Amino acid sequence: MCGSPRPSNRDSSGVDRRSLLAATGVGLSVATSGCIRQVRSAINRDDPEQLSLTITTRTADGDRESIQLARAVRTALERAGIAVDLDMRSEEEFFRSVLINQDFDVYVGQHPGDVDPDVLYEALHSRFVEEAGWQNPFGLSSRPIDERLEAQRLAPEDEREAEVEALLEAFVAEQPFVPICAREEFRLVRTDRFGGWNAGHPATRLGYLGLEVHDDASQLRIVHTDARVSKNLNPLSAEYREVGVFADLCYDSLATETGDGAVVPWLASSFEYDDGGDAEGDETGGRLEVELREDCSFHDGESVTVDDVVFTYQFLRDTTRGTADYPAPTPRFRGRVSIVDEVTVLDRDEGRLAFSVSADEPVAERALLVPILPEHVWADRDGRPDIPGVQIAEGTTDALVTDDVPPVGSGPYQFAVRSEREHVTFERYDDHFTTREDVSLPGPTAAELRVQIDPRSTSAIELVETDAADVTSLPLESYVVGDVLESESIEGNGDVEVLESPSWSFYHLGFNLRRAPFGNPNFRQVVARLLDRETLIADVFDGYARPTVVPVTEEWTPDSLAWDDGPPDPVGSFLGSDGTVDPGAAREAFEDAGFGYGDDGRLRVRR
User: Fold this and answer.
1) What is the pLDDT of residues 22-66, one digit of tens each?
2) What are the Cα distances from residue 263, in Å, to 165, 214, 359, 363?
3) Disulfide: which of 39, 139, 397, 522 matches 593 by Cβ 3.0-4.6 Å?
4) Contact indicator for 556, 362 with CB cutoff of 8 Å
């Protein structure tokens, strides 16, 4: 007869932890069959249950492609024996649920991506697993991937490509999320009022600076299909900022990024990297010495100083400024400032600073791409917000919830006026350093930027065609691209052109690894094989996208993981044909991965 365990060692199910651990120890024999049955019962106390999950995505008004992808993923999962619900949310609600509250099973959406693969550091490193924003929203905790992420940061430039390839191979094996495709980007522009549209990427500040002004045009009329810019201009907000081009026009960074990924001085007149090591390099990174431009000011007239720079990098690490028990890092730019170990003031009069950085030069320079915040404005935003009727989560500061209207930056354009869901208008900041004769950088040529909100690509196109707007700022939705490219009215209009730009964002299926069974890589690998990317691109994107299995640009995709004529070998073939999942093949794959099915043909898992 089995003895009764002590109450002090029981867990909530009544199982004696000490006895259970002893009975399951290696090499330990248990003499009494009744005890064996008790232990087995304790281990298997939860029977497998039918897997039911919810796909969170944006509404069709916010992202038509995401909802169509989500529906296709639902169909694929249901054919594999999984019960699926769709949870469609507005843009703010979607990002708040996924990025801030991490309250989801799986989601379908677009990742902002980057031209540099170091974007994966913040997306996947375990140091960010408890943070909000695009910093590891999946909850991945993988030592091998952490090591690869760190290695690509520290690798000398001539060795980095190999380190990135090793990282991507580890990513494919782990599948913390499933990249699906990168949409081709097309915009419509007028060339009769402004020219030079190809000089800068329209998803960056440089896309709206240095334009050629024709016929004394003073107002650049932008039509924007996302109303969030009229509600919130906080550069730190993950719910309202993805690319954040208009915030970048209000706020300067020390450096700016060109369309090909090069990092060049901006608010800084110069920067220089020193690896600080011997001939064999220094694995701890190096130092960036930065010199600020002289006589720069914020939009309220206050001078931009080295104190503002130091404040910014400290504030992005902890928006409580050390006043709370735990730091509250920003949900944006966290990955970039994580490179910075320390900021040292070398000379206040000359505006010289040194950044001690844990990265080699190409990655280290990207630490200079964060918005410089005025200390006299943001220092008072380090406290806990008090919003009547709203329960505020621990670690939330005013800095993270403010709409920042009006924004006080030092950028080439300053806020003028807004009407929520209708428009927001910016005025040229005539004291910006790019307006100086001795500065050879593109500056604000349009006296005013008026951003008109229009919810659909079709009506945005009409505004450009009828001379009511000069540019569609966001990529056209895929379903209209074919008509635009073949439009006789556009082709015959010498004042309207289609602008094609490279894209570094990508659509993907994200898992919440904090919940079972999504934390199991074997489960995720099978799910990845339920998606026929080529069919999805044809059906959802009308062919205007490229399939991918890795979350980087084509330039960084190794040959071994390139799509070419089908999925690369490490990924595995689609479990079906012509876009339709084969239930038998899916069942076999899940069973090979260690999962079982009930008599009703439904996949069952242990929670």
Assistant:
1) 333 333 333 444 454 455 444 555 678 999 999 999 998 878 999
2) 22, 30, 15, 10
3) 522
4) no
The kind and range of the H/E element at 426 are: strand 423-428
3-state DSSP call for residue 248? helix
Which CATH number fits the domain 49-183+505-605, given the four candidates 3.30.2000, 3.10.105, 3.30.70, 2.20.28?
3.10.105
Domain spans of the chain? 7-43, 49-183+505-605, 185-225+412-502
Q: Are strands 286-292 and 268-274 parallel, antiparallel or unpaired?
A: antiparallel
Q: Which amino acid is present at 369? A: L
- What value does the mean pLDDT take over residues 576-581? 96
Question: Per the structure block, which two tokens stand in for 99?
Answer: 């990025």
Q: Considering the chain, what percentage of its residues have pLDDT values greater than 90?
A: 80
How far apart (Å, rounded) are the C-alpha atoms in residues 37 and 55? 39
The helix-helix angle for 478-486 and 457-465 (nearest 10°) equals: 30
Beta bridge partners of 603: 597
pLDDT at 96 over 80: yes
Cβ(369)–Cβ(380) below 8 Å: no
**Is-contact 100 541, C-beta < 8 A?**
no
Distance, in Å, from the CA atom of 555 to the CA atom of 184, rounded to the nearest integer, reads: 15
User: Nearest 5 degrees, angle CA 87-CA 94-CA 409?
Assistant: 170
Nearest to 171 by CA among 533, 557, 547: 557
283-321 per-residue burial string, b: 16 or more CB within 10 A, e: under 16:
eebbbbbbbbbeebbbbeeeebbbebbbbbbbbbbbbbb
In terms of Cβ atoms closer than 10 Å to its own Cβ (0-12, 13-18, 19+), residue 281 is middle
Helix (H, G, I), strand (E, B) or coil at 29: coil
Q: Does residue 425 surpass a pLDDT of 50? A: yes
pTM of the model: 0.89
Please calculate the CA angle 254-258-262 and round it to the nearest 5 degrees: 80
Tokens, residue 45: 């106390």
Rounded distance, CA 545 to CA 460, Å? 21
Structure tokens at 567: 């999925």
User: Span 185-225+412-502: which CATH code?
Assistant: 3.40.190.10
Which tokens is 450 given?
Answer: 């008026």
505: Cβ contacts below 8 Å, ≥ 6 apart: 110, 111, 112, 113, 182, 183, 242, 243
Q: Which residue(s) pair with 509 in the sheet?
A: 108, 178
The full DSSP string for 250-285 is HS-BSEEE-TTS-EEESSEEEEEEE--SBTTB-TT-
